[in-house]
Write a structure and sequence with these properties.
Helix content: 25-40%
CATH superfamily: ATPase, nucleotide binding domain
Number of domains: 1
Structural class: alpha+beta
CATH topology: Nucleotidyltransferase, domain 5
Order of helices and strands: EEEHHE
CATH class: Alpha Beta
Number of helices: 2
Length: 80
């Protein structure tokens, strides 16, 4: 089975796609995009629309990558 996770952190959005089976986990693909959400919050006191749109675009792109690799269940978590 192939699984995927998108992690939205304070500075970086990451994608991990892995194959899970027979008691083993094998990484198939990793991606990352530095968006600097924490810096945006410190500088402006909030996330501006442009930055939120950037997060949406990156996560949508990562979701497309995961789907092309055969991921059926994709989880997105916010860890910031």
């Amino acid at each position: 089975m192939r699984v995927g996770v998108i992690d939205v952190g304070s500075n970086t959005v990451r994608l991990l796609v892995a194959s899970v089976g027979n008691g083993a986990v094998r990484t198939l693909r990793e991606e990352r995009a530095h968006l600097g959400l924490g810096e945006e919050l410190l500088r402006h006191g909030r996330l501006r629309r442009r930055k939120l749109e950037e997060v949406a675009d990156v996560t949508a792109g990562f979701a497309r990558i995961a789907r092309k690799l055969g991921v059926r269940d994709l989880e997105t978590v916010v860890t910031a």
